Amino acid sequence: MTDLALDITFGALVLAMLACGWRVLRGPEIADRILALDTLYVNVVALVIVLGMRQRSELLFEAALIVAMLGFVATVALARYLTRGDVIE
Amino acid sequence: MTELNPWIDGLVALLLLIGAFFLLVGALGMLRFRDFFQRLHAPTKASTLGVGGVLIASMLYSAATGRLAIHELLITLFIFITAPVSANLLAKAALHLKLPSKAGHPERD
Amino acid sequence: MSEQRSPAARRWLAHPVMSALLAAGWLMLQQSLDAGNLIAAALLALVIPRMVGGFIGDGFRLRAAGPALRLTAIVLWDIVQSNITVAKLVLNPARTPQPAWVPVPLDITHPNGIALFASIITMTPGTVSCIVDETRREILVHALDCSDPEAAARDMKARYEAPLREIFG
Q1: Residue A6 to residue B55, Cβ atoms within 8 A
Q2: Nearest residue on chain B to C119, judged by CA atoms?
Q3: What is the pLDDT of residues B20-38, one digit of tens each?
Q4: Measured in whole angstroms, how far is the alpha carbon of residue A10 from the centre of its chain?
Q5: Who's near C81: CB < 8 A, 6+ residues apart?
Q6: What is the pLDDT of residue B2?
Q7: Chain B nearest CA to A33, separation (Å)
Q8: B60 in any annotated domain
Q9: Between chains, do B49 and C123 touch, taking CB under 8 Å as contact?
Q10: How far is CA C152 from CA A75, B68, C95, C119, C159, in A?
Q11: Taking a C-beta distance cutoff of 8 angstroms, is the pair B86, A79 a contact?
């Protein structure tokens, strides 16, 4: 049963990421694109975890952690760039 | 591979499906809502119950297959701490850019 | 309490909650309780808070474990419940949400408490805290679907801020 659920989760994640990708391409505002990227990386974390469960490997856990960290830093830097016009003053 | 207890198997599957459902709903909200401030609510769903469900399922699954893995809790904790911060920064940026909002603009300087 | 603590303890354990989290985080990452990892965890827990102490200000001690646990339970329950409410809103094409700006006046003064309050508001779907205004002493919240902003503000204050005030004093 778990294997079936993993497949369904995979499909749902692909759809969710496509929706986020559409929002990244479409905009309309730059803040929308950043928000979509933020949601996209949350989905990627879930995707990597699901992949790890499927391959019964623990190695992918570190990948998920790194995706989560880089995604957060990227969002913060981009949001700061929008408000200040500069990341590091 | 060891055979899973059917109850745990079902529970893992259920948690996975709950996570998948909320991740999908979050992305749909992103497509459907009309202005930026409404779309801002989408990732809060995806990052709480969505990722939370998947991570708890993964924890339970690895515990049931014989290796205790609690480090998924770290990712959950990390996302729970960082998601509000990035949402808040994005909201500030959007207010700064004076993006249109259906609720009108808050009277601010 | 702090008068009874020795100077060394005050210097090295100025942030006991942070130290405990660091040690627990290290052990969880390593997935082991070897002597080496225990020593590394203890070192990290002692050294890192001292190194970043200048940036994060005064530490706080967990004054009230009971209210903290109760608040965690309330927040987790609210996350599940409001997730379902918002999911219904998203999946029903006939309904258009009525967004509103909700100013939430602050009674809590501890900066960590304010930060936690704002984070809790964002984590429960349907509300996002947009501006934490320390001079006006209020949080500006964007609510996704809200017909009565004042009732929503009162609700948030009663559910989250009251226990936070007990915890942070």
Answers
A1: no
A2: B84
A3: 998 888 888 888 877 888 8
A4: 14
A5: none
A6: 55
A7: 10
A8: yes
A9: no
A10: 29, 42, 20, 16, 11
A11: yes
- pLDDT, residue B109, reads 44
If we measure between CA atoms, which residue out of C110, C120, C8 comes closest to residue C63? C110
Mean residue pLDDT of chain C comes to: 80
Number of domains within chain B:
1
Distance from CA of B60 to the nearest CA of A (A): 11
Q: Is C100 helix (H, G, I), strand (E, B) or coil?
A: strand
- Measured between CB atoms, does A33 come within 8 Å of chain B? no
Identify the residue among C83, C117, C131, C160 best suited for mutation to test binding to B, counting B beta carbons within 10 A and taking the highest: C83
Question: Which amino acid, one-letter code, is at C75?
Answer: V
Which residues in chain C are contacts of B72 at CB distance < 8 A?
Answer: none
Whole-angstrom distance, CA of residue B95 vs CA of residue B35: 12
Determine the structural domain holding residue B65 and report its residue range: 6-96
Dump pLDDT digits (tens) for C15-71. Answer: 777 888 888 888 888 877 788 888 888 888 888 888 777 677 666 666 677 778 888
Among B24, B40, B45, which would you mutate to test the C interface (most chain C Cβ atoms within 10 Å of its Cβ)? Answer: B45
- Domain-located, residue B45: yes
Residue B15 falls inside a structural domain: yes
Q: What is the mean pLDDT of residues C99-114?
A: 81
Looking at the predicted structure, is the pLDDT value of residue B108 above 70? no
- Domain assignment present for B1: no
